[in-house]
Records
---
Amino acid sequence: MTALMERIRQEHSSIAFEVSQLFKETQIFLSDITVERHKQAKKLAEELSKFHQNLEQENRDFLAATEQQRIEQAKKQAEELLKFYQNLQQENREFLTATEQQRIEQAKKQAEELLKFYQDLQQENRDFLTVTHERRMTNAQEQNQQLCQFRRDLFISIFGTESSRRSAK
């Protein structure tokens, strides 16, 4: 039984030694894994940091380029807008000049037509007044002759003869 106990002790000791060896190997393995993972994590962190820096630099470059493009585009649009505005002003001046010229010509034509109308009206008025004056003169002469004839007739009817009137003169 002692031999059995001894053998159990040896096996126990051997198992304990193997467990201890296994524990040490496991600790070494875990330590190596931890060191390796720390190295990988550090390397990954460095790569990530470098990627982040590169990304930020690319972002700054992109934004600078985009800003420059937008500035150039804004300048181009401003130039086009200025050119459009100047063309619009020129067209407006030309339109106003043409319109002014048309209105001046139209006003001259209206003035000529009005002057002609006024002259025609004056001529018609003179002609009317002349005709009316001639009629009145003719009527007056006729009335004067009729009046003279009436007086003669009246004188003859009152005094009897026309010769007496001549003698009365």
---
Amino acid sequence: MVIKNNSNADGQSDPNGGSPASNQPNSGSSQRDSYAEADIIRLSLFLRRNPMPILVCSPDGTVIKLNPAAEKLLRVLHLPELELLPVEHEQFVQTCLAGTHTIPAIERIVGDRVFAITYNPVLSFNLVYLYVVEITDYRRAEDEFLQFTEKTIDPVKHAVMQLRATSRQWHWGLQDFETSKPANQVVFATMDGCVFAIGDPGN
């Protein structure tokens, strides 16, 4: 019987029965693993240091991680993370990962505060990041602007209607008025449809 003795460069037996070359790690695989580890570290730092609230979701929609900003927000709101999410949350996560179309920002109202939630896929890790932005001040300013616009437009509409109503009278009567008025008068109309004739300051 022949006993094969596998030895390394120092003459010692290899207990795994392989050659020294076969036990050396693959350099390409090792490099890829290093890159993957670096990506994980960068992603972790991004989550931890980002001032924006971020929720990390698995493919089934489960929230598996919150960054410190998200944890703080939920503590202030006294709200579990699931109550912050829309009803279609699970469907949005799956659609986002499938890449069929982009999910628009979803608005959620919590008390007197308004938040916009955006779904962003991280395909390399098969995860979805939810970014939460408060837009309360923006929506309040928008409402105030609309109210101001309505108050401003209504008088303008009324003035335009009056001008249209009197336009026919102007068309037929203005020529006679112009020929009969004193030469030193100027005719003008206001936004509410009133017609005035005043003396010409130049004379």
---
Amino acid sequence: MSDSFGEKTFQEVFFELQYLNPQAIIKLHPYYQMDGRNAIQTNVSVDKLVLPNRFYYNEKNGITNKHNTKSGSYLSITVEPLKLQQFMQQPKTNIVDKIKQKLFTPKEPDREM
């Protein structure tokens, strides 16, 4: 639950980073998908990213709002570079192509035995 004191979930910060940095590719790190660690990958250096209000970057905590929340609970996000090669090798799913394939692939007639 987010509020005006910088207390946000990882997902809220992730989407806000994407919104604030439309020129950047910002993806969930495989660590996040494997074990839930707060980690992202980006093709832009951290010093060039626009960070959400009350967030800053340091080497120890990554992107964080430590000391900027009312409750004292804070978020820490590890940031690693996303190499363009890694991004290009990922399988691309194009929903339009899938729909076309489904609509225009001829169906085999039912065979009676």
